[in-house]
Specification:
Blueprint lengths: L1 H18 L9 E2 L9 E3 L1 H9 L3 H11 L8 E7 L2 E6 L1 H11 L13 E5 L15 H15 L3 E8 L4 H12 L14 H18 L2 H19 L3 H23 L7 E4 L1 H5 L2 H10 L4 E4 L2 E4 L10 E5 L6 H15 L2 E7 L3 H13 L7 E6 L2 E2 L15 H18 L12 H21 L7 E2 L2 H4 L7 H17 L20 H11 L1 H11 L3 H20 L9 H25 L8
Parallel strand pairs: 5-6, 5-11, 6-7, 11-12, 13-14
Antiparallel strand pairs: 1-2, 2-4, 3-4, 8-9, 9-10
C-alpha cells in the first residue's frame, strides 16, 4: 500500500500545485523521521519560496489547505510542521495492507514483461571456490532474486572461462602428470579438490623446470589454445574433460549456499560459432584500433580509459575481453537487460567492455554492472594467512559448527515446548549457520570491503541473521499454537480496524513498505536494502510481540483474530524478505 499511497500523494500534490499556478517538477517527497506520525512528507515548500514570494511555512500551509483529503483513499489528512507537509495514513491504508499481506506471495510485484539476464560468480574452473570470492554468488543470487520479485523474467547465468591459458595449462598438466607425481592428498573428497592438485603441479613445473622442459610444455599449451581458437572438436573435448569435472564440484559447493543457475555459458561457444571473429573484425575497424607490442589493441583514451584493451595476440588467438564482448552482444540480443556481478579487480575490464560495446553499436545502457569488494577473515582458526587458501566450504563448515554450538547452548532458554531432536538441531544449525554467512555478506553495500566476524554474524541478540530469523520462527510458533497452517492464507474473518495500538500500527506501516523496498532494491540493484528492512521489521515485530498479546485468555476473540492475521502477514513478509536474501526462514529455533 505504500506504493499506492505515494502515487496518491504525488498526484494530489501535482494537481494542487497546478491549481495554485506553482511548479511541480520537484515534489520533495520523502519518508519522515521516526518521531513524525506521517507515512510520507514533502519539502516542496522550500523550493517554492522564491516562486511564490513567501516563506516556506506559509506556502506549506497554503498547499495543505488546498488538498482535499476527503477525496483521497489512503491519506486521512494533511498536516504541516513548519515548512513540511505531512501525509497521515487512513484506515483504508492499514486495512488494505493487512488484506494484501495475509497472502503468502505478499511483496511480489506485477509482471513487467521484461527479461533480465544476471551473470554472477563465473569463477574460473581451476579448483575449489575461494572464500574471498564468496561475495559474488551471494550478492549475485540476491540481485537475481530481488529482480524476480520485482516482476522481471530473470535468467541466472554462469559464464565459464574454458578457453584461456589457465585452462590450457590445467589440461596439459592433467594429461601429463600421474597421481604419484602430486605432492599432497586432496583436502576434501570432491572432484575439484582432487583435480586442482594437477593444476598446481603444472604451474610449479612451469616455474621451476629446466628451460627445455618448459619450452616443450609451453608448446603443448600453445597448441591447446590454438586448437580451441580453430574450433577443433578434439581439443575442445580434452579441455572439457577437466572443465566439466571441476565445474561439477564447484556447483556442489555453490549449492550449499544455495546459488543455482539456469545456464552455464561457455566461452568456447562464441569462438566456435564465429562471433568472436566477427567482434575482432569490427574492433579492427574502429578509430582507436592499433597494432603495437605484437598485439591488436583498442585505444580508449578518448573515452577516458587510460589502459588499452588488448583483443588479439600476434599469433591470432583472442583474449578474454574479446570473447566477453561476443558474449555480451549475445546477451543484449537475447534479453532486454543484462546485469553482471564482478569483483573490484575487474573494474577496469568492466569499463572497457561497456565502452567497447557502445563503440561497436550496442545499447550499452541496457548493461549494468555490480562491482563488489572482497570478503576478508579476521585472524584466527580460519585465516592462518589472512584468508589465503581458505575455501568457501571451510567457511560454511565452520559456520554450521558454530551455529550448532549456539543452538545447543540456548536449548534450555527456549519458550516453545516443541522438543528438538538431533535432526532438528542439525537442520537449524544449517539454516542459521549458512544464513549467517549469507546475511552478513549481503547486508553490506557491495562496494565496501568487509571483514567477516563470527561473533557478530551469529549473535541472536544483535541485528544479524539469527536475530531476524528468530522473528519468523516466533511467528510460526504463534500460528501453530493457534492451529493455523503456517504457509497458507488466513481463512478466518478479521477486522483490521481493531488494530489500534501504536505497536500494531507501526508494524502495519512497516509491512506496507515491503513492496516499495523490493522496487527500490531492484531498481538500484542493491539487495542490501532488503537486509536493512528485515532489521527494521524485526524491531517493529518485537515491539508488537512485547506489547500486544495474541493468544492470552483475556484477549477478545475478534481482536485475537485480527492479531493472528497480523502475525500471519508478518510471517509472509519476513519469509519473503529472507527468500530474496537467500537466507532460510526457520519454523523453529
Amino acid at each position: 500500500m505504500f506504493l499506492s499511497l505515494r502515487a496518491e500523494v504525488e498526484s494530489a500534490l501535482r494537481e494542487t500545485l497546478a491549481d495554485l499556478d506553482l511548479p511541480s517538477d520537484d515534489l520533495g517527497i520523502e519518508e519522515p523521521p521516526e518521531d513524525v506520525e506521517s507515512v510520507l512528507a514533502s519539502s516542496v515548500a522550500f523550493r517554492l519560496a522564491g516562486e511564490a514570494g513567501a516563506p516556506p511555512p506559509e506556502i506549506a500551509a497554503t498547499v495543505a489547505d488546498a488538498i482535499d483529503a476527503d477525496h483521497l483513499e489512503f491519506v486521512s489528512r494533511v498536516e504541516t510542521q513548519g515548512p513540511y507537509l505531512n501525509f497521515l495514513p487512513s484506515e483504508a491504508y492499514f486495512g488494505e495492507t493487512l488484506e494484501a499481506a495475509v497472502d503468502p506471495d505478499y511483496g511480489r510485484l506485477a509482471d513487467r514483461e521484461e527479461s533480465v539476464v544476471v551473470e554472477h560468480t563465473s569463477a574460473n574452473p581451476t579448483g575449489p571456490v575461494h572464500v574471498g570470492r564468496a561475495r559474488n554468488p551471494i550478492v549475485g543470487d540476491a540481485v537475481a532474486n530481488v529482480l524476480a520479485y520485482a516482476g522481471y523474467d530473470v535468467a541466472r547465468h554462469y559464464y565459464v572461462n574454458d578457453a584461456g591459458r589457465q585452462m590450457a595449462v590445467f589440461t596439459w598438466a592433467y594429461e601429463t602428470f600421474d597421481e604419484e607425481d602430486l605432492e599432497s592428498e586432496p583436502a576434501r573428497d570432491r572432484v575439484e579438490y582432487d583435480l586442482v592438485r594437477y593444476y598446481r603441479k603444472g604451474n610449479t613445473f612451469l616455474e621451476n623446470a629446466d628451460d627445455d622442459a618448459v619450452e616443450a610444455a609451453e608448446a603443448e599449451i600453445e597448441s591447446i589454445m590454438q586448437g580451441l581458437e580453430a574450433g577443433d572438436e578434439a581439443t575442445y573435448e580434452r579441455v572439457s574433460e577437466v572443465v566439466d569435472r571441476v565445474l561439477g564440484g564447484m556447483r556442489e559447493c555453490l549449492a550449499r549456499l544455495p546459488a543455482e543457475f539456469d545456464e552455464f555459458v561457455k566461452e568456447t561457444r562464441f569462438m566456435f560459432d564465429g562471433q568472436t571473429d566477427d567482434v575482432v573484425a569490427r574492433l579492427k575497424e574502429l578509430d582507436g584500433a592499433i597494432y603495437e607490442e605484437e598485439a591488436w589493441q583498442l585505444d580508449l583514451s578518448a573515452q577516458g580509459i587510460k589502459k588499452n584493451m588488448v583483443f588479439l595476440r600476434s599469433d591470432g588467438t583472442s583474449l578474454y575481453p574479446t570473447r566477453d564482448l561476443a558474449h555480451h552482444e549475445w546477451k543484449l540480443e537475447n534479453f532486454d537487460r543484462a546485469v553482471t556481478v564482478l569483483g573490484e579487480d575487474h573494474k577496469l575490464q568492466a569499463e572497457q567492455i561497456r565502452t567497447s560495446l557502445d563503440l561497436l553499436g550496442n545499447d550499452a545502457d541496457r548493461l549494468r554492472q555490480v562491482i563488489y569488494s572482497y570478503v576478508n577473515l579476521p585472524e584466527g582458526k580460519m585465516s592462518t594467512r589472512r584468508g589465503t587458501g581458505v575455501q568457501l566450504d571451510d567457511l560454511l563448515d565452520e559456520a554450521i559448527s558454530r551455529a550448532r554450538e549456539e543452538v545447543e547452548d540456548r536449548l534450555d532458554d527456549r519458550i516453545r515446548d516443541d522438543d528438538l531432536g538431533e535432526e532438528d538441531i542439525e537442520r537449524i544449525a544449517h539454516q542459521v549457520g549458512i544464513g549467517a554467512v549469507r546475511y552478513d555478506i549481503v547486508a553490506k553495500q557491495p562496494a565496501k570491503a568487509i571483514t567477516f566476524e563470527w561473533d557478530q554474524a551469529l549473535d541472536f541478540e544483535a541485528q544479524s541473521a539469527p536475530y531476524v530469523q528468530y522473528v519468523h520462527a516466533r511467528c510460526c510458533g504463534i500460528l501453530e499454537e493457534a492451529g493455523i497452517a503456517v504457509e497458507s492464507e488466513v481463512e478466518t474473518a478479521f477486522d483490521p480496524s481493531l488494530l489500534e495500538t501504536e505497536a500494531e500500527r507501526d508494524l502495519l506501516e512497516t509491512i506496507a513498505r515491503f513492496p516499495a523496498v523490493i522496487k527500490e532494491a531492484a531498481d538500484d540493484l542493491e539487495p542490501h536494502r532488503v537486509a536493512t528492512y528485515t532489521r527494521e521489521f524485526a524491531e517493529a515485530f518485537n515491539a508488537f510481540y512485547r506489547e500486544c498479546p495474541v493468544l492470552a485468555s483475556d484477549v477478545d476473540e475478534d481482536l485475537r483474530d485480527a492479531r493472528l492475521a497480523l502475525v500471519a502477514a508478518s510471517r509472509h513478509t519476513m519469509a519473503n524478505a529472507l527468500s530474496i536474501l537467500g537466507v532460510a526462514a526457520p519454523r523453529s529455533m
